[in-house]
Amino acid sequence: MGANIGGHLVAEELYRHGVRDIFTLCGGHIAPIYDGCLRYGIRLIDTRHEQAAAHAGDGYARLTRGVGVALVTAGPGVTDAVTGIANAFQAQSPLVVLGGAAEVRSVGRGALQEMEQVPLMRSITKWCATANDPKRLREYIQTAIRVATGGVPGPVFLELPFDVLMSQVDDNELIVPPPLPPWPRTQADPAQVEQLVELLVRAERPIIFAGSQVYWDNASADLRHLTESLGIPVMMNGMGRGVLPADHANVYSLARKRALRGTDLVLIMGTPLDFRVGFGAGFNPAAKIVQIDRDYTQLGKNRATDLALAGHSGLVLRQITDAVGGKAEALRNRLAAWRHELRDDEVKQHQKLIPYMQSSTQPINHYQLASALGEALGAGPLGTGHLADNALIIGDGGDVVAMAAKVLPLGGPGQWLDPGPLGCLGVGAPFALAAKALDPQHHKRVVVLSGDGSFGLNGFDFETCVRFGMHVTVVVGNDAAWGQIRGPQVMLFGEERSPATKLAPTRYDKIVEAFGGVGFHVTDPADLLPTFRKAIETPAVTCVDVSLDPAFSITSGAARLTV
Which residues pair with 210 in a beta bridge? Predict the structure, then answer.
């Protein structure tokens, strides 16, 4: 008769569900799980802050479309992870967070790092619980994974008391759950699909607004087939960015405002009507609204819909394409004028950016930086073409990321990661850890585009990248300020009434050098492209510190161009 301690059972069940990497920061309460990870060959990637461990698990989930796991110790270990968990909750990312806890026998007596952890997590997780029976540990782990990935994904939290993890469990007493079945994928109501087709064949200016669920459902091919068959223009947001390449004939980015105001039928697929689209008011008030989402609670939120469908993005897209059938060619031809109108505006808006991208003046502006970075990653000059297949950009900042998003042309799904709707800074180094954990052969060119402010949150985890031999490049847009906040404050209240928005002109390349990486510093725009290329090809953790014009977004109005 064999026996295992609880920590080994946790690791065994994680391994059984395909978990091979865990992001963590050490603590005595979780040591039994560490020992189990060694037994089952699970790699522990230890970060410098628990927030980074949670962010990294979130990034891992996004890139794999599966679970990411963070393991943190009790008390401050759990509280440090809260921001990363909240960010994953808003992004609907299936993050499993395992938190150590004081011994059950000491509850209420003031044990080291004892606190009420489960109540803390209730508002930012799909499910949270305490595992208080060592015989059920494998069941608890499977439940955590099942809930995190089932239906609308999201983070879960499982509290694991130290004495439960140290308890011995005989094999004949162990509760071993059966394997999870494949998750069902649901189609939309066929009658509603037919109603949608009726709206489409009458529409003159329809658009598809594709969001994160198109990415999570791996529905890029289905979206491409639909837009090429029916000729409907496509805009993307959230994790949906890149599900079609930027240079696809039916993809529009800079013409977004014209499209949203001019459309008469919007297919909103897998994205909430939140602040990013003016809570639904950003669309033409007279437009018909069709919302397609797997989350029933989002249907009709903030703006009434004319039609609401629920289901898996890929299956619903196929249903629509099939239902249009022989009417596709006539629809595609009829929409040619609408596509040409949007293309003309796309070109016009892009031309407004070209003088900024081509500028040879100093200090460097944000568009100069982004254009050169895109070219270094395989795009054409001045934001044309699209990034190489092996490029991945992680946006972690304010103005420098917002402006770069207008210029960097994505080539495929999963090429762009940013915090998501919570707008949480500090994801750069943790998301890079996740990306490189999945890239042992160093095929991916992973670049963190960071503001100098956001670097300060989890920048120490570039040391983690160095320690684990994960070759990433961080490009720091250094304007010695919290630029996205300072700009509006100066405009509203004046230079002398904008406190707490300036930073020291720190050399972040020197910080990464101190970690054991390689640093570069750029002040001349002519040096941007060759320096980016050198940094990206250097087999090390590299940092390019770019001195940016702190007044650019204020004096030029570039951040508020009509897009």
Answer: 236, 269
Q: What is the pLDDT along the chain (563 residues), one digit of tens a residue?
A: 477 999 999 999 999 999 999 999 999 999 999 999 999 999 999 999 999 999 999 999 999 999 999 999 999 999 999 999 999 999 999 999 999 998 877 777 777 777 899 999 999 999 999 999 999 999 999 999 999 999 999 999 999 999 999 999 998 888 889 988 888 899 999 999 999 999 999 999 999 999 999 999 999 999 999 999 999 999 999 999 999 999 999 999 999 999 999 999 999 999 988 888 888 888 999 999 999 999 888 888 889 999 999 999 999 999 999 999 999 999 999 999 999 999 999 999 999 999 999 999 999 999 999 999 999 999 999 999 999 999 999 999 999 999 999 999 999 999 999 999 999 999 999 999 999 999 999 999 999 999 999 999 999 999 999 999 999 999 999 999 988 888 888 888 988 888 988 999 999 999 999 999 999 999 999 999 999 999 999 999 999 999 999 988 766 544 443 32
CA distances from 516 to 235, 416, 461, 510 (A): 41, 27, 12, 10
Residue 506 CB contacts under 8 Å (≥ 6 apart), including other chains = 452, 478, 480
The answer to whether residues 219 and 212 touch, using CB atoms and an 8 Å cutoff, is no
Contact criterion met (CB below 8 Å) for 303 and 279: yes
| Residue 358 dihedral angles phi and psi, to the nearest 5° | -85, -10
Sign, CA torsion 355/357/361/366: positive
Per the CB < 8 A criterion, the answer to whether 185 and 247 are in contact is no
Give the DSSP letter of residue 548: B
φ, ψ dihedrals at 174, nearest 5°: -75, 135
As beta bridge partners, residue 518 has 542
Q: Which amino acid is at 448?
A: V
| Separation CA 377–CA 386 (nearest Å) | 9
Give the sheet arrangement for strand 206-210, strand by strand.
234-236, 206-210, 265-269, 288-293, 307-310
- Cβ contacts of 49 within 8 Å, gap of 6 or more: 25, 80, 458, 460, 461
Q: Please answer whether residues 422 and 87 qualify as being in contact, where contact means their C-beta atoms are separated by less than 8 angstroms.
A: yes
Q: Provide φ and ψ at 448, rounded to 5°.
A: -95, 120
